[in-house]
Amino acid sequence: MHRYVLRRILQMVPVLLIVSFIVFVSVRMIPGDPARMIAGLEASEEVVQNIRQQLGLDQPILTQYVRFLQGLLTGDLGTSLYFKTPVFTELATRLPNTLKLAFSGTLFAALIGVTGGILSAVYRGSILDNVAIIFSLAGVSMPSFWLALLFIQLFSVKLGWLPSSGSGTWQHLVLPALTLGMYGAGRIARLTRSSMLEVLSADYVRTARAKGLANYIVIYKHAFMSAIIPVVTVIGLEFGGFLGKAVIAETVFAWPGVARLIVEAVLQRDFPLIQGGVLWLAFGFTLINLVVDVLYGFLDPRIRYS
Amino acid sequence: MHRKFVSFTLALALIFSIGLAAVAAERDTITVALSSTLTTLETQDTTDTDSAAVRFSIYEGLVTMNPSGNIEPELAESWEISPDGRSYTFYLRKGIRFHDGTPFNAQAVKVNFDRIMEPDRNTSATAYFTMLESVEVIDEYTVKFTTKSPFGPFLSHLGIHSAQIMSPAALEKWGEQIGQHPVGTGPWRFVEWVRGDRVVLERNEDYWREKPNAKRLVYRIVPEASTRVAMIETGEADVILRVNPEEVVRLRANKNINVLETKTNRAMFFAIHTERGALKDKRVRQALNYAVDKEAIVKSILGGAGIIADSPLAPGVFGYTPIKTYEYNPKRAKELLAEAGYARGLTVTLASSRGRYVQDWLVAQAVQAQLQAIGINAKLDIVGDFANYIQQITSPNRADMMFLGWATSTLDGEGGLYQILHGDMANKFANASAWNNAEFNKYVELGRDSTDPELRKEYYRKAQEIAVEEAPILFMYSQVIFTAVRNNVDGVYVLPSEQLIMRKAGLK
Question: Residue A42 pLDDT > 80, yes or no?
Fold first, then answer.
């Protein structure tokens, strides 16, 4: 087990190297000049050229990449062109916000999704089932941008219950987390439902019932614990996906997260910040995959690592 | 079951009442919702309008721009210009201290401008002060600036935010990190900056002019326009920037909210590539100007928020003279095309950014349709990514006509005329017209090299006449922007250069 985890962690190194190279090259391939964005529209071509030199952007791409890797080895991600601050600090101050958002969004999605999915499977064909299906369909298909604006209109402007934007208190977290969680809740509910239905019609569940076990024990212990594996995969993927999807919630709710930061960095052609940000996201994503894989072993004793 | 339900409901009510308390802001604070992420609060770096707005609260300059865009004294009480027009001697106000206690004096001014002139420093301020030769301390409160050659708009350049004065002690202490630890002489002093979220300022108790009556000024960063509108409706923000024209009617209907209208110095136009095919012909370029119904566009797409252009400069810029508006006259446009030998029409390519200027891409679509109406086969390319778009200005493969907005931040005609139309800049940044007219160039240079305001106005008038007649650009309108302010706050204004000024803002 330990060796398995260690090997997986070592496997992350080449993955991250490849990601860093692809990002490094592709940001330099897209049109747009960071030096011009720094100098401002009024600056002369001469000033812009000087900035390019100062930043080493006039060097061959490979030279620049080697310099970037050298920095990386010493833990230095470079300086943001846009903010003039270390990329590391800029990401580190925003990341906790995005994680908070992703955790609470995932939690909400998992709670609502799993509960809804189970109820809907157990009471299959009932009104409850149909309502859950409609809600999960709505959750999956509503654009989150529109949903976010709808939440603000309802909870902030009309009812005045929650702040429309910003950060600092838990109240600020509610609307962005709800927005983020809605999609995941729908997906998780649908998956839990179908997974549960499959298990509920299995022979061993019928046997359990025939033994005269209480209904909730059958559902929880026999059915749910077997049905959960695919659900865990999706929750893990949802969490990873949240980091990407967070950008809409972070923008609409003015939440100071890392996803919005990276999108802004792309618009400003802030190369070091884009590189650092994508690298962090890639690292986070591979880490989550690892956690999900390890979790399988706990949930299903048949799965062994070698 | 019932008891459980009741306690659940009570718990919910409790939770939301806490939320409610948090929403109602303290009444000694003014909150502003800005639209873009703040970059740095160092005066000399970057040009983004929102960072500049915050800097205007913290810092002051030797001179400043008043709401109508005229230069008036600030940290300098008065000044003298030498007869050769190369030296400016400033007499500084006495007894002013920076927020960190450092006295403001001639040495402080010198430290700031020497920093701009450092050979390795290539910041946005550099662009404005390439003409500067030296800054000398004459005595404690007298400082002398010398330029390489006479430079007419010098005072206007001193009035922009990049020329505001930072505490020399803070510069010494923080070096290149000064942008996160700003120290100036202004009415508000810096407290904290929560990255990506807000900047908090508090009243400068030792301010040399009238102190603000509010205790705190908070700038929030809210990128989404609809969210800003919600914030001013709920009272979470007292001032919001960049209200879209379609939201103005709704906000005006709210009796707690005033909507300010600012005529900016941003001239909107299509640069016409004057070195390409049919567009080399002046008559074709004039035809393009006659073919577009500017009034209809401003009225229907911008909700009336635009001043129809009658010069390459926006009204309010020094030297602006109304020359003439190309009225909507499709018949005349067709005649001119026929005269030039294009009776059967021609093909032109158009390009526009999306979301950079107010409704830019919708305006570009309207222009495309109107050009098609007189038989010009207009093709439009809309580019959402601005960094990519402005890069095209210097590209040989750029569109025949690029939709651009040029803000003359110094509010001096030199800025608008030289950069976008002078032959030196042809095919460079930002003369996308590739226009090079010797006579026009001459008048712009004469205006730059003279320090006599009346003479300069006259030179600029001549330059504008030539530009309007030769039509290297399709003249559109100058931009009007909307700012919403809640009734309980007064003294808020927006400069023609689009920066929100909160220096005199107070609670009623």
Answer: no
| B355 vs A: CB within 8 A | no
At B55-113, the pLDDT tens digits run 999 999 999 988 877 899 999 999 999 999 999 999 999 999 999 999 999 999 999 99
- Which of A38, A90, A167 is opposite residue B197, by nearest beta carbon? A167
Contact A227, A286 (CB under 8 A): no
Within a domain: A216: yes
Query: In this structure, what token pair is assigned to residue A82?
Result: 């846009």
Q: How many Cβ atoms from other residues are within 10 Å of residue B448's Cβ?
A: 22
Whether A31 and B388 lie within 8 Å, measured CB to CB:
yes
Q: What is the pLDDT of residue A242?
A: 75
Q: Which neighbouring-strand residues pair with B134?
A: B146
Q: Using CB atoms, which residue from B40, B127, B406 is nearest to A47?
A: B127
Instruction: Determine the average pLDDT of the residues in B455-470.
Output: 97
The interaxial angle of helices B453-470 and B438-449, nearest 10 deg, is: 160
The DSSP letter of residue A79 is B
Tell me the shortest Cα–Cα distance from A115 to chain B, in angstroms.
19
Query: Domain of A208: which CATH number?
Result: 1.10.3720.10
Q: How far is CA B385 from CA A32, B269, B352, B355, in A?
A: 9, 19, 10, 9
- Inside any domain, residue A304: no
For residue A31, the chain B residues in CB contact (below 8 A) are 387-388, 391-392
Give helix A127-141 / helix A87-122 axis angle, nearest 10°. 160
Residue A14 lies in a domain: no
- Tell me the C-alpha distance between B460 and B449, whole Å: 12
Taking only residues 392 to 451 of chain B, the set having a beta carbon closer than 8 angstroms to any beta carbon of chain A reads 392, 394, 406, 409, 415, 419, 428-430
- Give me the residue from B124, B196, B233 closest to A43, CB to CB: B124
Sequence-separated (6 or more) residues with CB below 8 Å from residue B388: A30, A31, A32
Q: Over the stretch B411-420, which tens digit does the pLDDT of each residue have?
A: 899 988 998 9
**CB-based contact, B37 to chain A, within 8 Å:** yes
* Pairs of residues, one from chain A and one from chain B, whose beta carbons lie less than 8 Å apart: 159
pTM summary value: 0.88
- Nearest CB among B20, B227, B419 relative to A160 is that of B20
Domain membership of residue A121 (yes or no) is yes
Per 3-state DSSP, chain B is made up of helix, strand and coil in percentages (nearest 5) of 35, 25, 40
B390 in contact with A at a CB cutoff of 8 Å? Answer: yes
Which residues 103-162 in chain B show a CB within 8 A of chain A? 120, 122-124, 126-128, 130
Contact A260, A277 (CB under 8 A): no
Q: Which range marks the domain in which residue A157 is found?
A: 96-271
Q: Which of A47, A152, A254 sits opposite B122 (nearest CB)?
A: A47
Number of H helices, E strands in chain B: 16, 21
Q: pLDDT class for B20, splitting at 50, 70, 90?
A: very low
Cβ <8 Å between A256 and B197: yes
Which chain A residue's Cα is nearest to B408?
A42
> How are beta strands B493-494 and B347-353 bridged, if at all?
unpaired
Cβ neighbours for A98, distance < 8 A, ≥ 6 positions apart: A243, A246, A250, A257, A258, A259
Residue in B429, B431, B498 to test binding to A, most A beta-carbons within 10 Å: B429
A80 near A273, Cβ under 8 Å?
Answer: yes
The rounded distance, in Å, linking the Cα atoms of B84 and B475 is 37
Contact B165/B112 with Cβ under 8 angstroms? yes
ipTM summary value = 0.85
| DSSP characters over B203-258 | E-TT-SSPPPSSSEEEEEE---HHHHHHHHHHTS-SEEEEE-HHHHHHHHTSTTEE
B300 touches A at CB < 8 Å: no
Contacts of A39 (CB under 8 A, 6+ apart): A47, A48, A51, B122, B123, B124, B127
Total of domains in chain A: 1
